[in-house]
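EI: anyone free to look at a 313-residue chain?
SC: sure, send it
EI:
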Amino acid sequence: MQNKVTQLFNIEYPIIQAGMIWNSGWRLASAVSNAGGLGILGAGSMYPEVLREHIIKCKKATNKPFGVNVPMLYPNINEIIDIIIEEGVKIVFTSAGNPKTHTAHLKEHGITVVHVVSSVKFALKAQDAGVDAVVAEGFEAGGHNGREETTTFTLIPMVKEKLNVPLIAAGGIANGRGMLAAMILGADGVQVGSRFVASEESSAHKAFKDSVVEANDGDTFLTLKELAPVRLLKNKFAEEVVELYKSNPSVEDLKELLGRARAKKGMFEGDMEEGELEIGQIAGLIHEIKPAAQIVEEMISEFNTAKAEINTL
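SC: here you go
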């Protein structure tokens, strides 16, 4: 399956595994890359030297392309960029910041740069900054999200209308039918997060993976817009957030409740009550923990089946 995205990354299928914090370590990234997609290491939950270790292990586990996701609002960003360059990583996905800050520097070192956005406005800014592709992420997505609450179904065609570089759709895509729908709307490929959370190779805690499998529609919500919008599974912590909002809290009140390492506590350490459990709305369609290679294989098989069915409409 060759198109702009597969050619850009030199991969077999236009499926990108999202670089999710506490989920996307070297085991998952290498497994997705070996299966023909593009695996991504999630630098947002790694200290610089931990990231270096994951890059080294990923290079040993696959001879296929893989990348690193870098949320630019995180500390140690310059050190992280230096390590990526030193270790010869050839693909970087940036997010949560101004793409102009690091794009030119990365491209000077032969690195393909992709930026994640949630609106047409920021897609065009990323293109102007010189990125090689854009990920447009809809409101359905898990984790940190856009404030505009624009759904993938509406965002992708609006971005496609304005964009010249390759477009990757994200948010609410977990199977081949979702992949086909996104590509019909104008995407050249898809970025998949939540489905890979519930993979055997994900570094998430087993309790978190099980909670994703057990989730139904309506079990997530978007909150904490005053800090950074995030989509969470409903649990005790989420209930405390809802209760706090009833008192018209200040930003400081919200920060105090959130505290430190709340996402690590939930997704990585398995505290299903007090942890922050970041996952997308599509969790209601995820029913089983599977190997990453099987997830990729099933997505492509279902994509091809759905594509053939279109001719009967």
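EI: The domain at 4-203+283-302 is CATH 3.20.20.70 (TIM Barrel).
SC: 👍
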